[in-house]
Amino acid sequence: MNQHRQAAAPMTRRDYAWYRMDTDNNIMVINSILLFEGQVDMERLVSTIAQRLPNYPRFTQKVELRYGRPHWVEDQQFNIEDHIELQQMEHDASLTREELQAHLTRLAHQPLKGGRPLWHMTVLDHVNGGHAIVFRVHHCITDGLGLVHVLNHLTDDNGLHSRTPSPANHPHRATVVQNAVCSALVRAVSHMKIAFHVTRLSMLWPDARTPLKNPMYGEKQLVWLPPLQMERVRAMSKRVGVTLNDVWVAAVSGALRTYLEQKGEHVDGRALRAAVTFNLREKANAFQLGNEFGLVAVDLPTNVGDATTRLQFASERMTAIKRSHQPRATMAFLSIAGCLPAALQRFALNLFTSKGSVVLTNIEGPGGRRYLAGSRMTDLICWVPQAGRLGVGLAFISYAGQIQLALFVDKEQIPDPERLMQLTYAAFDELEVATRELVPEQEGEAVMLSEARRA
After folding, report:
1. What pLDDT is stored for residue 185 in this prediction?
2. Where do the domains of the chain lie, and which CATH numbers do they carry?
3. Which example biological process does GO assign this protein (predicted)?
């Protein structure tokens, strides 16, 4: 079915690091679910995906070592139907969110089959009066930004189904956006700063001891709740002149603070540290797939009781990181890890991930409604995998004017993930009230302070 056979291509050391990162407790698979209206037409769905997905070579290639180096190699036995499975659900449209979460959790524990392209779709019929697709992609293929590009190419912006995708998102028509070439001196200084940050990260103290640092046993759970409206969150950010991501970081910080406080933990002392994803790729280059992001270590303001102050600290710390070389340092760290023997890579990764307690990611999804094989997509939910000693991941993905929050945890660290998810929503409510209470003079000052920080 693949009309665009590709020659073997070297795999980047960074992607190879992700490829080798699977453990019994953490599988490096990006789990997502796409919810649709109406009954599924499997023939039309499979035909559409067969025509569009192979436009990205990584989805028809497997990983092989050649001359000791990892390569993407065309799978000569590739068959799209081996990667798309219809599962007849026992329930009808009355299937509850809890039952669907339990089913997805079972799927998330299953490794992808080796020796073939590392992705799989499970189609579920009779879900909430419609159907759903569980799309599982190994992290070595792409990151969140690349996955959104794939979804935009697979889908249409209207329900008039066509086998031919829109040229606007076609990877064969895209061109690479080149960054401005810097002088040798500027590059040398940049490399020195990156080396400094790699050294600094390796010397950080391990994160504070809380239940979030309990040893993992590999029993995980996926959780989500109904979406937030984008305009509501954007209004909070505009009132104080911060970004949506700053609001997200502040809300998670407030939720973790309350959660740990309710568990009897002392929360006013040392702040928790998070590994926050930071995109380093031009959006126009997302069609290339692969991994182009850094994981930055951020001290979350979990030791701050006031919601407004917590938001201010979150914004200041995220702004400081954007100006630093820390994101590129962690991306360089992953490239170095991909050159090491597997055992040494695991050691380095465990050392790095011991510095934090949670993973946070923010993904900008499609801005408008999307349709796949003529069916309207109502919701898009994505879960971030964790690596090494991290077992708690929170994701924030936007889609068509709404924001979906999702939690993926090891139950030895978070035995009641629904509670943490509810507290995250409550933290957004708290931030909304706190930002609305700003009088106009304070609101103006907040915006000016924010602009001054970014100047």
Report:
1. 46
2. 9-168 (3.30.559.10), 206-454 (3.30.559.30)
3. glycerol metabolic process
